Amino acid sequence: MSKEIVLSGIRSTGNLHLGNYYGALRKFVKIQDDYDCRFFIADLHALTTNPNPADLHANVKKILAEYLAAGIDPDKATIFIQSDVPEVAEMYLLLNMHVGIGELMRTTSFKDKARKALGLSAPAEGDDDEAFEKQIIGSETNKRVNAGLLTYPTLMAVDILIQKATKVPVGKDQLQHLELTRRFARRFNSFYNVDYFAEPYDFDFGGAPVKVPGLDGSGKMGKSEGNCIYLIDEPKALRKKVMRAVTDEGPKEPNSPMAEPVANLFSLLELTSTPEVVKHYRDAYADCSIRYGDLKKQLAEDILAVTTPIRERINDILADEDYLRRVVKQGAEKARESAAKTLADVRQIMGIRKF
Ligand code: ADP
Ligand code: TRP
Q1: Does position 79 have pLDDT exceeding 80, yes or no?
Q2: Any residues with Cβ below 6 Å from ligand 1, and which?
């Protein structure tokens, strides 16, 4: 029996951090034997925020090297670059004929990104959607909300449907896009009276989802939060970041409850250290003998033990252009093969036929 298809993409907008590693990459590596995995770099999606061309290319290369360095094996999983599959662009045009601009405008990610593009602050309670929509329509030429941002979910749906993926590991913020993908698939099937697309779902890795906190005291580690430890961070920079992590004045009484910034450090320690080390510092917190400086030093070294081999591999891989070219070519061939089949079917179903 053929393996179920798992697909996930990451926008090429910067380096990967510990959150991406524990929340996504490490899990991808674990499942690559059991599923038909396809991991790609969403450079067309990155274009929606108009990066400068040199940055875009450098970022694609970085993420590719990071995928490989983290252990994704190009002979097991298909690793490819979205723009290497032109079938995606054509099917994006076709699927857009069945997507409503209203439903796209109501998407949370669109509202957030449109606000950013217009230079508006985050929405307040009771904000007037109508006024916001007027601003989008009436926005000046130098601050426009491009159509690519609006149709971002169509492109993502195409990424998934064109590969016939049914399991899609994504972060929470992407679940709405997945919901839209299912809706578009159902709509296509029902409009053409076919049973063509299967509905894709979030991939459940089992167990509690990992949330890697940032070093700034609250919330999760994230690119836009500016609180990241990157896989590529040099030891000196990494140690500095960890030593600067927010803490508090320390427990005053035995068994005090732990404030969020300190709990976050323990969460990071749990991910990267041994149970004995974690216990040692938990006990020290409980009996008030803890010194945060020691905890941070330990944490920095334990994180480095995880990231150093990865960083070294990233740098080796980045230097090996031939290898990168081979990986990308092999991935593109595999990805295009499935994409071309789906696109041919879709054209046929929609009535685009050869004479
Ligand atoms: P960012 O928040 O830095 O922009 P993305 O949204 O591009 O990261 O996330 C890519 C993948 O990494 C997703 O699968 C997401 O769930 C995972 N991820 C990102 N940050 C974290 C985090 N702090 N903890 C756990 N997983 C994360
Ligand atoms: N939109 C996703 C993100 O920002 C990236 C992405 C693009 C994706 N196409 C996809 C993820 C298809 C999963 C499947 O994280």
Answers
A1: yes
A2: 10, 19-20, 22-24, 170-171, 210-212, 220-224
